[in-house]
Amino acid sequence: LGTGGAIRLIDEKKINNLPFLILNADLVTRVDFNSLLKFHIDSSALATVCASQYEQIIPYGVLRIQDSYLTQIEEKPKEKFFINAGIYVISPNLIKHLENFENRFDMTDVIEYLLSKKKLVSIFPIHEYWKDVGEIDQFNQARQDLKE
């Protein structure tokens, strides 16, 4: 069903009109879920996406070019990005929007849909431990991290 498609299986009566968490199954985290839920409620957004900071070091000198001329050379720059951490909070009234989707869809499809409809989606930066363990090296690293 995808991470989004499974939401349609939720019995709305059982969630008591409360926001709920959706997490990708291949991550390990120590996110403060109480703070996340409070942030989501205070934001009045239909959805909140958790963002983790990712740093990429380019091991080469990067050339900045304009109109075939070199404007700058930056030696081994470090780029920082916010990435989707695969942790979401969903307001219960979002469920009615899911009627617009086919059988299988992911949470990123839901978020893109909300953005296309100009609906409010908030971002919650996480600073706690977070690791995607979808690859064996990352899984082993998380095991080592948690032992420490």
Strand order of the largest sheet: 1-6-3-7
Helix proportion: 25-40%
Biggest sheet statistics: 4 strands, mixed
Count of alpha and pi helical runs: 4
- Tell me the distance between the termini: 36 Å
Shape: globular
| SSE-based structural type | alpha+beta
Using the CA coordinates, give the radius of gyration.
19 Å
Residue-averaged pLDDT? 90
Number of strands: 8
Written as H for each helix and E for each strand, in order along the chain, the element string is HEEHEEEEHEEH
Low-confidence stretches are none
Percentage of residues in DSSP E strands: 35-45%
Question: What report would you give on this structure?
Answer:
By secondary structure, the protein is of the alpha+beta class. The chain has a four-stranded mixed beta sheet. The chain has a two-stranded antiparallel ribbon with strand order 2-8. Strands 4-5 form a two-stranded antiparallel sheet. Strand 4 and strand 5 form a beta hairpin. The longest helix has 12 residues. It is globular. The mean pLDDT is 90.
